[in-house]
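Before surveying the methods themselves, it helps to consider a single example record, giving the amino acid sequence and backbone structure tokens:
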Amino acid sequence: MRYIIQFVFVMIILLFSSLASWYEGSELLNRPFEWKYSTPFSEMMNGEVVSKADIIQLDYFIYSLKFQPFYPLLMIMSILYLVYMSTYLLLRKNLKKFYLILGTTGIALLLLSAIANDFSSQGGQYVSQLFIALGIVNLLFAVGYLFKEHVNSKPIGHSS
């Protein structure tokens, strides 16, 4: 039951933060000078953005992340929490696999932080810092689990 409550709570946060990000990002429509720098999905799908009609709504999230990063960061954290919780529920009978995935995710987040660090906006810097923090936390949990397993696997009275 506690997982259902967590899942529902995090889904509500994800929905709210997504709607807030989408709303804040819609300001992109009124900033034509920003279209060249904040519409990567529109450019992929439609080529050069020359009018509001060319902008795909997914780019609203990019714009929001760059200039109003609170809700997009909340979205990222909510998504990651849902992934962690789902993975745990699927693998709770085999915690070794769960912590292996957690460690791998930690490494991936640290690599993504390097990419996000190249973004020139303040929001990009926040994403990079969030990915570094989450990556380190993931790795600490994974290494902590491995250490605990190593200590617990030693026979009693065995000294090294």
User: Anything to note?
Assistant: The chain has a mean pLDDT of 90. The radius of gyration is 20 Å.
